[in-house]
C-alpha cells in the first residue's frame, strides 16, 4: 500500500480546532485512480458529533447577532481565499475524488461563487409590514436565522456541495455541522481551514469526519438542538434521514438522485445536441446528479445522433485526473464500476448494442470506457436506474407524446434536457416535463444564481438563487396591538 505525500490537513474540525477521534480511530482515504492511501482521517462518532453541535449552539448568538454586512464581508473573504488557493484545493479534489484537474478547478470556482452569491443574498433578507386588518393593530413579519443546522454531503462534488449549503446557512446567520462523505473528507477539512482564515468564528462551521455515517447521522437527526437537516445524496439515504428527522420535526432540504432524460427531436440541431450530450453525460465520468441518463432521440435522427456521439465519446482521453488532457477519470470505487457493468450487461442481454466502449477501460482498476449503447428500451435497468457512469443509452421514439411519456416515466424529477428549434414545441415540452430543472438546447445549467433542486423523489427545496437562503430562515409574525 503506497502512501502519497500529505499536501493537506486530515483532521476533523470542531469549535475552531483540528481534532482526532476520542478513541484515536481513523479511516483511510484513497485515491480512486490508484488505490493509494492519501491520508488517515479521524473516525468520529456520536459523542464528538454532540460536541460539534454544542459548539455550533454556543457560536450561534454571536454569529446571528452580527450585521448581515459583517457576515457578508467574511463570506466574501472566504470566496477570495478559495480562489487564491484554487490549485491546491483542486489537487485535493482530484486526489480524493478522481475528477480531471480542470473539472476540479471548476468546482472550486463554483464553490467560491456560492459564498459570493450568498454574501449578497444575506444582506437582502427582507421582512414585511402588512396592511393591518384592524386600526389598533400592526402586522409585522420578521425573517430570522433558523439556528443550528446540519449538512450531510456526497462525494461527487466534495467542496461545492458543502459551499451550496454553508454559503446560504452562514449568510442567514445560522451555524452548521457538516458531515462529508467518508470517501472524500479532505476537501471539507480544507474548506474549514480556509473558512477559519477568512474569519468565520469558532463553532460557526464544524466538520465531523466519520466512517460510520449512520451513527453520526442518527445524532444529527435526533439532537433537538439541530433545527435543520440539509442533505445531498441518494434518494435511499434521503428517505432514511427524513424518517429520522420527523422525530423532532426538523426542517429538511433534500437534494437527491436523478434520472435525466435527454430528448432530441427531429427538428433539433443534431450537432448542438451531440455537443450538449457529450458535456452532460461524461462530466465527472458521468457521476453527477444531473448527468443525462436516458437519451430519447426521434427515430428520424437517432442513427445519426448515436453515431456522432459514439465517435466523439471514443476520443475522450481516459486516465488519472492529474494527467494533461484527461477528461474521463476513474469511478469513485470498485462497487461503482460493478454497478455500471451490471446495467450494461442487462441492457445488452435485452437487445442493446454497443457502438463504443461497453466495458472496463484497459487501464483497469476503477476506469470504465466511455460508452454509447443503442436500441435501449424502457424495460432495461439502465433506463430505470441512475447510471452514475460514462454510459449513454439511446432509445428511439416516434412522436412528442411518446417522448414526454418516456421522459416522465421515472420516480425521479431532478434535471431534464431537450433539443428542438420549434418554439411552440419548446413551451409545450418544457411545461410537460416533471422535473425541477429543464435545459432547452443547453445541457450545462448549474449556476449559483439559479434554483437547483428536484421534484418527486429527487428531493425538496432549492439551493442557490434567491430561493436558497429561504430554507435557512424562519418567518416570525409579530402583531402589535393597542396601537
Ligand atoms: N440533487 C443533488 O444536488 C445531488 C448532488 C450530488 C449527488 N446527488 C446524489 O447523490 C448520490 C451519490 O452520492 P453518494 O454516493 O455520496 O450518496 P449517498 O446517499 O450514499 O451518501 C451521501 C451522504 O450521506 C451519507 N450517508 C450514507 N448513509 C447515511 C445514513 N444512514 N445516515 C446519515 N448519512 C448517511 C454518506 O456518508 C454521504 O455523506 C447520487 O444518487 C446522486 O444523484 C444528488
Ligand atoms: O451532482 C451534483 C451537482 O449538483 C451537479 S452540478 O455541478 O451542480 O451541476
Automatic annotation (TrEMBL):
Any Gene Ontology biological process: gamma-aminobutyric acid catabolic process
Q: Which InterPro entries match?
A: Ald_DH/histidinol_DH (IPR016161), Ald_DH_C (IPR016163), Ald_DH_CS_CYS (IPR016160), Ald_DH_CS_GLU (IPR029510), Ald_DH_N (IPR016162), Aldehyde_DH_dom (IPR015590), Aldehyde_DH_Superfamily (IPR050740), Succ_semiAld_DH (IPR010102)
Catalytic residue list: 255
One Gene Ontology MF term? succinate-semialdehyde dehydrogenase (NAD+) activity
Q: Does the keyword Oxidoreductase apply?
A: yes
What PROSITE patterns does this protein map onto?
ALDEHYDE_DEHYDR_CYS (PS00070), ALDEHYDE_DEHYDR_GLU (PS00687)
Q: Which residues form the Aldehyde dehydrogenase domain?
A: 19-478
The domain of life is Bacteria
Q: Which UniProt keywords apply?
A: Oxidoreductase
Q: Which Pfam families match?
A: Aldedh
- List the Gene3D superfamilies hit by this protein, alphabetically: Aldehyde Dehydrogenase, Chain A, domain 1, Aldehyde Dehydrogenase, Chain A, domain 2
* One GO CC term on file: cytosol
Give the protein family: Belongs to the aldehyde dehydrogenase family.
What protein is this chain from? Succinate-semialdehyde dehydrogenase (NADP(+))
- Species of origin: Methylosinus sporium
Amino acid at each position: 500500500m503506497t502512501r502519497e505525500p500529505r499536501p493537506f490537513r486530515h483532521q476533523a474540525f470542531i469549535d475552531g480546532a483540528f481534532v482526532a477521534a476520542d478513541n484515536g480511530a481513523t479511516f483511510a482515504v484513497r485515491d480512486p485512480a490508484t488505490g493509494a492511501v492519501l491520508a488517515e482521517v479521524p473516525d468520529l462518532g456520536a459523542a464528538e458529533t454532540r460536541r460539534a453541535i454544542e459548539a455550533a449552539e454556543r457560536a450561534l448568538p454571536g454569529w446571528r447577532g452580527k450585521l448581515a454586512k459583517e457576515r457578508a464581508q467574511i463570506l466574501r473573504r472566504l470566496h477570495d481565499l478559495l480562489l487564491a488557493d484554487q490549485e491546491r484545493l483542486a489537487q485535493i479534489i482530484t486526489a480524493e475524488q478522481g475528477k480531471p484537474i480542470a473539472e476540479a478547478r471548476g468546482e472550486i470556482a463554483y464553490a467560491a461563487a456560492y459564498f459570493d452569491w450568498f454574501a449578497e443574498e444575506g444582506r437582502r433578507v427582507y421582512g414585511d409590514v402588512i396592511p393591518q386588518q384592524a386600526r389598533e393593530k400592526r402586522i409585522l413579519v420578521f425573517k430570522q436565522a433558523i439556528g443550528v443546522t446540519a449538512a450531510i454531503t456526497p462525494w461527487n462534488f466534495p467542496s461545492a456541495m458543502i459551499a451550496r449549503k454553508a454559503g446560504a446557512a452562514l449568510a442567514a446567520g445560522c451555524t452548521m455541522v457538516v458531515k462529508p462523505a467518508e470517501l472524500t473528507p479532505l476537501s471539507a477539512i480544507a474548506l474549514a481551514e480556509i473558512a477559519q482564515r477568512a474569519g468565520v468564528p469558532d463553532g460557526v462551521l464544524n466538520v465531523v469526519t466519520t466512517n460510520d455515517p449512520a451513527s453520526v447521522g442518527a445524532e444529527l437527526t435526533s439532537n433537538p438542538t439541530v433545527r435543520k437537516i440539509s442533505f445531498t445524496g441518494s434518494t435511499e439515504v434521503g428517505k432514511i434521514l427524513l424518517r429520522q428527522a420527523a422525530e423532532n420535526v426538523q426542517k429538511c432540504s433534500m437534494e437527491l438522485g436523478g434520472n435525466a432524460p435527454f430528448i432530441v427531436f427531429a427538428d433539433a440541431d443534431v450537432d448542438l445536441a451531440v455537443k450538449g450530450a457529450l458535456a452532460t453525460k461524461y462530466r465527472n465520468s458521468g457521476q453527477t446528479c444531473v448527468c443525462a441518463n436516458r437519451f430519447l432521440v426521434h427515430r428520424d435522427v437517432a442513427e445519426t445522433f448515436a453515431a456522432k456521439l459514439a465517435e466523439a465519446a471514443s476520443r475522450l482521453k481516459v486516465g488519472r485526473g492529474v494527467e494533461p488532457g484527461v477528461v474521463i477519470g476513474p469511478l469513485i470505487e470498485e462497487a461503482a464500476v460493478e454497478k455500471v457493468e451490471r446495467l450494461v450487461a442487462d441492457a445488452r442481454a435485452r437487445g442493446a448494442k454497443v457502438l463504443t466502449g461497453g466495458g472496463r477501460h484497459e487501464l483497469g482498476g476503477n476506469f470504465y470506457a466511455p460508452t454509447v449503447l443503442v436500441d435501449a428500451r424502457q424495460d432495461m435497468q439502465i433506463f430505470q436506474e441512475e447510471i452514475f457512469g460514462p454510459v449513454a443509452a439511446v432509445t428511439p421514439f416516434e412522436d412528442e407524446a411518446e417522448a414526454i411519456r418516456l421522459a416522465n416515466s421515472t420516480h425521479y424529477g431532478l434535471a431534464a434536457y431537450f433539443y428542438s428549434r420549434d418554439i411552440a414545441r419548446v413551451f409545450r415540452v418544457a411545461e410537460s416535463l416533471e422535473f425541477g430543472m429543464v435545459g432547452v438546447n443547453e445541457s450545462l445549467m448549474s449556476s449559483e444564481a439559479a434554483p437547483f433542486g428536484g421534484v418527486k423523489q429527487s428531493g425538496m427545496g432549492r439551493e442557490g438563487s434567491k430561493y436558497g437562503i429561504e430554507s435557512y430562515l424562519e418567518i416570525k409574525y409579530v402583531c402589535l396591538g393597542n396601537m
